[in-house]
Write a structure and sequence with these properties.
- By secondary structure, the chain is an alpha/beta fold.
- The protein contains 14 helices and 14 strands.
- The protein is 31% helix and 17% strand.
- Strands 1, 2, 3, 4, 5 and 6 form a six-stranded antiparallel beta sheet that branches. It has a four-stranded parallel beta sheet with strand order 7-8-9-10.
Amino acid sequence: MKRHKITKVDEGGIAEELGIEEGDFLLAINDKEIEDIFDYDFIVNDEYLEVLIEKANGEEWLLEVEKDYDEDLGMEFGESLMDEYRSCFNKCVFCFIDQNPPGMRETIYFKDDDTRLSFLQGNYVTLTNMKEKDIQRIIDYKLAPINISVHTTNPELRCQMLHNRFAGKVMDYIQMLYDADIPMNAQVVLCKGLNDGDELRRTIGDLLDYAPTIESLSVVPVGLSKYRDGLCQLESFTKEDAREVISIIEGFQQQAMEKFGEHFVHASDEWYITAGYDMPGEDRYDGYIQLENGVGMTRLFLTEAQDAVDIYLEDHDGKPWAGKRKVSTITGLIAYDYVCQVAEIYKQAAPGLDLQVFPIRNDFFGEKITVTGLLTGQDIVKQLQGKDLGEALFLPSQIVKADEPIFLDDMTVEELQNALQVPVIIVQSSGVGLFNRMIEMENEHE
């Protein structure tokens, strides 16, 4: 029987009233073993519970609880999932974790493929480490949406791309979820010569049949670092390739609009930049449903920058900001032109704001990696040392850990700040937030 260590008991909560203490273990509820947080959250909603607790001295207490429906017991556990994270057993030809250099922190190399994190954090999962009973539990608990890395609906090709003989079952699982009306989102990592062209047409067409239960599908290009020795030989997409991908996607977007009034399938921003096309308008992104996959981030940033300008001028009776300030920011190579556009937009309301934009080449992972989110502290330092960065350097939050000011190469923000001898300010990647933070910046920096 699984034992779940209780690490916190809320003051005044039901658990405290029952005599449950930190260090006790939860064994079962209503005679059911608790597998993970989803079991717990589902069962604990009942108005009558029989809670089996093991005390620190080994005694077992069976506690009867009468409470309101949805009322929590007021206790927390050592692991957020009440279980170990499930790792990925695939050997995907496009896996970026396999392309990391040696010597990085251990967590960088952990391959997550835990379906539970799809609901809790929005992660995309392959479903290859699941069985029908796991899918049935999703259905029974009505967990949604589930985000699925499909990549291809061709069973043989999916087994080949994921190097997993069970990978071809994905459409069976999607059918089960569809029949149960469980909302889904899907993702394709496109690899040249494998799942592009007619295979991409097949995948989009197959998944479109499940719309709108499958709410959206993103298509993103494979990322290729310089650490690919011994891995499948893959090529970067050319301008002509990108234009073909966009043509395929936009053709299916028309079908989807006619079918149910949404665009359904979306090309990530890299495709339009590589193709040399302007970004689609805001109405093409269906409310930015695939934003976390890099779909619409550029358009949203431009829109937010203009919103920042309009809001400022409206709030100040049309008078522009009277200050004068020189600051700087960085970007990956692929977004450089657009971040420069944002700097120019800001001048509409702040003509005295001199925002310098520095494109950073990714020497750490290789020049083919051009997105901002994979930049490292050492590359920023090497390419900015000796430059006049103004009063402060603003860095987008996606280049540091969510819970710690540290870059992918383990350099800290403080170390970068000391190396560049300029205040470094981490800001959320918002066109409004960046503008406001720059013009409202205090003389003394954090």
